[in-house]
Amino acid sequence: MSGNASQEDDEYVLARISYVGFADQMGLEGVVILKSEDEREFPMRAFSGEVARHISRFREGDKGSIPTIYNLVEEISVMQDLLLTEIRVYQSGTVLRANLYFKNRKGEIILRNYRASDSIALAAFYDIPIKVRKSLFEEAIEH
């Protein structure tokens, strides 16, 4: 690992999904609360209720049917012998984004700047680590 990679690792903390729900009674807007190992919380919202329902199903172990877009990732991963190993959530402007880290025999492939909500759904599907930029937990405390 290069010096920059380990420095970047220090900017992220491991988090788990502690809550999945909805911001409205109709279930149109999803909410996820990510919790760090030291019990700090980062609430995430402003994504579709449909994605929240997928995250909830995956967490409950229902992985029998997956939406087309996640199935696309699954098929490409199988065809290219890729394993999704972790996601990293960060803020880009006013939106949350995530990088997806894949490994294969040749090394690591990073897909950058994807929607955080979909990336968290993939993390829930594959039971892989979710890392969140430390500053997001700090900003959540301030508000």
Descriptive overview:
The chain has 143 residues and is α+β, with helices and mostly antiparallel strands. It has a single domain, classed as Roll (Bifunctional nuclease domain). The chain is 36% helix and 42% strand. It is built from 5 helices and 7 strands. It has a 7-stranded mixed sheet. Helix 2 (49-59) runs parallel beside helix 4 (116-126). The radius of gyration is 15 Å and the shape is globular. The model has no long low-confidence stretch (mean pLDDT 91).
Query: Do you know the CATH topology?
Result: Bifunctional nuclease domain
What string, H for helix and E for strand, traces the elements in order? HEEEHHEEEHEH
How many DSSP-defined strands? 7
Estimated structural class: alpha+beta
* Helix content estimate: 25-40%
Question: Biggest sheet: strands, sense, closure?
Answer: 7 strands, mixed
Low-confidence segments: none
Mean pLDDT: 91
Q: How is the largest sheet built, in terms of strand order?
A: 3-2-1-7-4-5-6
List the defining traits of the structure above:
143 residues, seven-stranded mixed sheet, Bifunctional nuclease domain, alpha+beta
Summarize the structure.
By secondary structure, the protein is an alpha+beta fold. The protein has helices at 3-10, 49-59, 68-79, 116-126, 134-142, and strands spanning 12-22, 29-36, 41-48, 83-92, 95-104, 107-115, 130-133. It is 36% helix and 42% strand.
